[in-house]
Write a structure and sequence with these properties.
Elements lengths: L22 H5 L8 E10 L2 E11 L4 E5 L6 H8 L7 E6 L8 H4 L2 E4 L11 H11 L5 H11 L12 H14 L4 E5 L7 H17 L3 E5 L3 H4 L5 E6 L2 E7 H4 L3 E7 H9 L7 E7 L2 E7 L4 H9 L3 E4 L2 H19 L1
Parallel strand pairs: 3-7, 3-8, 5-6, 6-7
Antiparallel strand pairs: 1-2, 1-4, 8-9, 10-12, 10-13, 11-12
Helix pairs in contact: 5-6, 6-7
Keywords: ATP-binding, Nucleotide-binding
GO molecular function: ATP binding; ATP hydrolysis activity
Protein name: ABC-2 type transport system ATP-binding protein
Length: about 325
């Protein structure tokens, strides 16, 4: 978990809301200050750019998926946002301020990493006892319920708890901290399917009662796809997709049928649809194209004997990042 600095909070925790009020803004809905604002952010390790000139904002009270292949830059980006590393260039504002060594920002964050380290002499009970020192929204009753759900052995030396139980401890801290901005970086190494489902269920239930911003990095995209409200896809350090999850669902289609019919259909739409993936066997082809099809296009496809199937979030991201990898290799 993150270990925010010492000073008491200077302002109430909670997603920052704009306090500006002008005569004209009284009629309009209040503008909402983003929780995170990143502009031209780059992180280099030597000559290698792990995060490469990215710009994006994070809305309050939203569950984000930060998705991407191994080595895409997800952890590096989270470390920058949580003030655990310095940017090479560009700007980061979290709750309107620079996060590095900034107690006002850090006390509003919780960062659950893939492999959290604890002092050797710790037992799980010590983790939960010390959590309220760091997280002022800590809900001990909620933590108790989660400890039961995940069956965490409270008195076992931390070095003896299983990999999955260690992940469960991180998940419990992340949920019960109720931090206004919570990062989960692949939080469930070793967690079994039942425990992962408990995590998703508890996150959704608690988020409904206590809205906050959650940024979840995971490779299990299908499992979390119903949880995510906004998706950021990062690839080779660049943001490839920054979209509302509902808009993404249905934003690509696989067209299956006789190769020449598929080609004619896809070829006629080149300007509005990008070909993301193609497979063929015998005289048949299956081509995934980006961009939503109109009702007329759907009718034309069906009349031509083509089958149209929606593409899952996971398939879409696999297709998009594979297409990007090919572009990247060509340009390298
Ligand atoms: N301290 C470092 N020194 C050199 N290279 C680094 C360092 N930290 C990260 N990198 C490189 O930066 C790139 C991005 O790493 P990062 O850990 O952010 O990826 P990731 O998207 O979290 O990957 P994964 O899904 O495998 O956890 C990788 O190529 C990694 O090897």
């Amino acid at each position: 978990m993150s270990t925010p600095n010492q000073t008491p909070p200077a302002q109430p925790a909670g997603p920052a809301q704009s306090t500006q009020s002008t005569p004209s803004s009284q009629a309009a809905p209040p503008s909402i200050t983003p929780v995170v604002q990143v502009s031209g952010l780059t992180k280099r390790f030597g000559s290698f750019a792990a995060v490469d000139d990215v710009s994006f904002t994070v809305k309050p009270n939203t569950i984000y998926g930060l998705l991407g292949r191994n080595g895409a830059g997800k952890t590096t980006l989270m470390q920058l946002l949580t003030g655990q590393d310095f940017a090479t260039s560009g700007s980061i504002r979290v709750f309107g301020e620079k996060p590095v060594e900034n107690a006002r920002v850090l006390e509003q964050l919780c960062f659950i990493k893939e492999s959290q380290k604890y002092p050797d002499e710790f037992r799980p009970k010590h983790v939960f006892r010390s959590a309220p020192w760091f997280f002022r929204n800590w809900d001990a009753d909620f933590a108790e319920r989660l400890i039961d759900d995940f069956q965490v052995p409270l008195n076992r030396p931390i070095k003896k708890v299983s990999r999955g139980q260690l992940s469960a401890i991180g998940v419990i801290v992340g949920l019960a901290s109720r931090a206004p901005l919570t990062f989960f970086d692949e939080p469930y190494l070793g967690l079994d399917a039942v425990a992962r489902q408990i995590f998703y269920d508890r996150l959704l239930e608690d988020y409904a009662e206590h809205p906050r911003t959650v940024i979840l990095s995971t490779h299990l995209i299908d499992e979390v796809s119903n949880l995510l409200e906004h998706v950021l896809v990062i690839d080779h350090g660049r943001i490839l997709m920054d979209q509302n999850a509902d808009d993404i669902r249905g934003s690509a289609t696989t067209v299956v049928g006789l190769s020449r019919t598929v080609d004619a259909f896809v070829g006629g739409r080149r300007s509005s649809h990008r070909e993301l993936h193609r497979e063929g066997i015998g005289g048949l082809a299956s081509v995934t194209i980006s961009g939503a099809l109109t009702a007329e296009e759907r009718r034309a496809a069906t009349e031509a004997g083509l089958e149209l199937t929606p593409v899952s979030l996971q398939q879409l991201i696999v297709r998009t990042t594979s297409a990007s990898a090919q572009d990247f290799e060509r340009s390298a």
